[in-house]
Write a structure and sequence with these properties.
This protein is α/β, with parallel strands linked by helices. It is 37% helix and 16% strand.
Length: 330
Amino acid sequence: MKVLVIGGTGNISRGIVAALQHRNHEVVLFNRGQHRDPPPSDVRIIHGDRQQRDDFEAKVGAEEWDAVIDMISFNAEDAASALRACQGRVGHFVHCSTVMTYGPPFSGINLPETAPLQGESGYGLGKVAADNLLLESHARDGFPVTIFKPSYTHGPGMNLLRQVGGDGSWIDRLRKGKPILSAGDGLNYFQFLSSRDAGFAFTDILGRSNCFGEIYNIVHPQARTWDEWHRAAAEALGVDIEIVHVSQETLIAMAPERFSGLRGNFGHTQIFSHEKLAAALPEFSPQVPVTESVAENIAWMDKHNLIPDSDADDLEDQVIEAVRNLPRIR
C-alpha cells in the first residue's frame, strides 16, 4: 500500500513508520522537516506546513493514496482541510484522536468508545470537534475514516513522563539516588503503551472496510499503577528507587505552578476498554516489555541531552523535606 503519514516524526508516528516499513508498505511523510531526528533515508518526504491550507491541500491532493494517517490534526479546521485534500483520493483515512476526549472529568473506569465526551481541555475539545467532523463526513458521504484514541504512548520522540509532571530531571534524580514524589498513594491506574506496539495497530487496521466510521481506543490492555511505572523506570536504569507519597492537593497547595497540571490529566485514574479494538484487530497484542520500551525512551533523551541536572532545581527536595518534617500524631 502507498501510505501517507501527516506528521510522521513524533513519538507515535515513528512507531507507525517503522511498522509500515516492516509490513513493506510504501511510506510517504508530509511535514515541515524540522524534527531533531530525521526520518529513515528511504522514506519520501513532502515538505510543507498543514496550516498553510492551500499548499497542504494542493500537495496532498495531487496524489492518490491507499491510506492516509493523520497524526497532527487538532481541531475541526485541521480535519476540514484534510477532508478537502483527501476526499475521493484515499482508500482509508485514519485520524489520531485522544482519550482526553472522555475527560477529565471521567465518567468511570474501563471506559468504552461510547463513553460520554466530558473532556474540558482545549486539546480534548479540539479533538472532539475534529472527530465529529470526520464522522459526519463518513455518515453523509461515505468518507472512509477510522478514529484511534491513544492514551499515554511512550517511546523515542518525547520525554518519558512521570505522574507529577516536570521535565526529564526525574531520571537524573533516580540516577543520583534521590527520592521522587508521587501524588497520593501511588495507586492511581494508567495504561502505558509503547509507540512500537502502537505503530502496528495503526498499520494493521489499514484497508479494513469494516472499521470505516468506527472509533477505537488504542491502549495497553494491562493497567499499571503510577508507582509500578516509576519502578519500571528505575529497573530500566538499574537503580533502586525511593518514592515519597504526598497528596495531590498538598502538592498543588505547596507549588501550584509545578503541580496544578495533575488535575488536568495524570492525577486521575484512567482506564479505557481495549475490547473493541481487540475484536476488530485480534492479532494486535502489545509485545514490547515495559522496561525495554522505557530504556529506549531514556536512551533517546540522553542522546538529545533532555535530562537536566536535578541539582539545578531543589523544589522537589524542599517539598520532600517539608512533608517529612510535618508534626505527626504518635
